[in-house]
Specification:
3 domains; Rossmann fold; 20 helices; four-stranded parallel beta sheet; alpha/beta
């Protein structure tokens, strides 16, 4: 069977091109399972949790009996009482053993089947007493894995189940129980009572405060991506620059598993035979990565749909992300702040050098597109850009000089009378609103995270493979402006560009509004002042 890049559900090494998980499995076993830890794998949607759990169950099976469960398979009515839940849970344990091999499996399966048959009605006390007996009789330690555990997280019965498991954990030196317990889901299980008991004083109480910290990295590194696409290259001989393509994919995704696989899937299946990509060799290039990113940003995926739902639900999270992207706000990273914690839990935010940052460039681009689209509905400057878009593309190339010139005219006409605080807050948003309809459908832009702050933001515009570097900054004097010019030159060197653009929002009464071209070192800088 020919392997392919999978973006739906479980990945299997024999069927799919995937990052090898052996090192991750060894680390989880050594640091957590062998040390009898109970822990939670809490990651964003499509982060490879299920694939990791399946691989972990196989990896542990030589030394442990592994009970691997999925709470999505347990019907809602089983959570109506402790009795119905306990019976359903015992049946799931019994079913899980059917997939185990080795000495002792048949004995445990028989014990479970007999317990279920003899106890048509059972409570949690009886269930956990049996689990203790089973673990005492087992020839190997037992490990419990529960995937999609948050599908039951709004149910009081499940909270009682966790509390019972916690009690057994604390007494396991006297009464045997599961050697290690692994729970996985999207929501942070330590905050379960946030859903069930909404009173403020109960928000952070948890029946699962025994959990060890799970600090095993689940995102993919550029080296891991290179190894995966290297296996693909061995099969297809495209002639790609494996390391260069891996680094380009990582630059957009920061290793978010489903985003990595999706870009690879586009380059393998969708691009060849299309405009500019006659074959696989054409698609496995940097231009192919850029086109795959564009295709992904145009798609409605479960991950992006979930992102929009969460922003609509948690308005404080939406406001935080808008402030970071539009205004360059630098916010100290602290998960005690609810909005930050929620963003990290969903996989949208991360800690970058002690500051809150959007998790990856694709998320930034998708979020910017969302925010700009919402603003465009009522934005006059968006309408101006849309109405004049044809004059900015000549012979298939974006005329960024003309874009800058026309933006200065429109901004001076519409917004020049607003105060400094207003422009500092919204100025960069206005430029992006103006730019969006001009490149829409053909190009993309993103803000460079390394340079974004309250005073300066670099926007990278990609139009049909040609990149334009635009520095947006707030005027803070001639010395600061000169320093900004030199910073832009350094950035142009990094991108191997001879020409860049600078847009200054200047509040000096004697400012000279307009566009001029200057030379800084061996670079050409088009400087626009509004």
């Amino acid at each position: 069977m020919t392997r392919y890049f999978n973006t739906e559900g479980l990945c299997r090494p024999k069927e799919h091109y995937m990052v090898r998980l052996d090192d991750r499995m060894a680390q989880i076993k050594r640091k957590l399972v062998d040390r009898k830890k109970y822990f939670v794998i809490n990651k964003g949607r499509q982060y490879g949790k299920t694939t990791t759990l399946r691989a972990l169950a196989d990896y542990l099976s030589e030394d442990y009996f592994v009970f691997s469960l999925d709470f999505q398979e347990m019907p809602d009515e089983k959570f109506e009482s402790g009795e119905t839940f306990s019976k359903a849970f015992a049946c799931m344990l019994c079913d899980a053993l059917e997939h185990q091999e080795g000495e002792g499996q048949q004995k445990l399966h028989g014990m479970l089947a007999e317990f279920i048959a003899q106890n048509r009605e059972m409570g949690m006390d009886g269930l956990f007493a049996f689990i203790s007996h089973m673990c005492r009789e087992s020839s190997r330690p037992a490990v419990l894995i529960i995937d999609e555990v948050d599908s039951a997280s709004n149910n009081q019965v499940f909270v009682k189940f966790l509390a019972q498991m916690r009690a057994c954990y604390l007494k396991r030196d006297m009464n045997p129980t599961f050697h290690s317990v692994i729970l996985a889901g999207l929501y942070d299980i330590k905050n379960l009572k946030l859903k069930i008991r909404p009173e403020l004083e109960h928000q952070y109480n948890s029946p699962w405060n025994i959990a060890a910290r799970f600090d095993v990295e689940m995102s993919f590194s550029a080296a891991q991506i290179a190894k995966m696409i290297g296996e693909y290259e061995e099969d297809y001989h495209t002639g790609m620059d494996i390391q260069g393509i891996a680094e380009e994919i990582y630059a957009y995704t920061s290793g978010y598993p489903v985003l990595v696989s999706t870009l690879c899937k586009y380059m393998d299946e969708d691009l060849p035979g299309g405009d500019g990509f006659d074959n696989l060799s054409d698609s496995w290039t940097k231009a192919g990565v850029a086109q795959a990113v564009k295709n992904l940003l145009d798609e409605s995926t479960p991950l992006f749909e979930s992102m929009v739902r969460q922003l609509d639900t948690y308005k404080e999270l939406e406001a935080l992300i808008e402030g970071i992207l539009y205004q360059g706000r630098r916010i100290p990273f602290n998960r005690d702040e609810k909005a930050i914690n929620i963003g990290v839990m969903f996989g949208f935010l991360k800690n970058r050098g002690g500051q809150v940052a959007v998790a990856n460039r694709i998320f930034e681009m998708r979020l910017l597109n969302l925010f700009v689209t919402r603003e465009a509905i009522r934005s006059e400057i968006y309408a101006r850009g849309e109405g004049d878009r044809n004059q900015f593309v000549r012979d298939g190339r974006l005329d960024m000089d003309a874009v800058m010139q026309k933006f200065v005219e429109y901004f001076s006409d519409i917004w020049s009378k607003n105060d400094e605080a207003f422009v500092e807050k919204y100025g960069r948003k206005f430029f992006l609103l103006f730019l969006k309809p001009i490149i829409n459908g053909t190009g993309n832009y993103y803000m460079e995270a390394e340079t974004r702050d309250l005073r300066r933001t670099d926007v990278i515009v990609d139009y049909l493979g040609e990149q334009f570097i635009v520095e947006l900054k707030i005027w803070h004097g001639s010395e600061y402006n000169e320093r900004g010019e030199n910073q832009l030159v350094d950035y142009l060197d990094y991108y191997h560009k001879d020409k860049g653009y600078m847009l200054s929002f200047n509040f000096n009464q004697k400012k000279e509004v307009g566009v001029k071209t200057i030379t800084v070192g061996d670079k050409t800088v088009v400087e626009a002042v509004v």
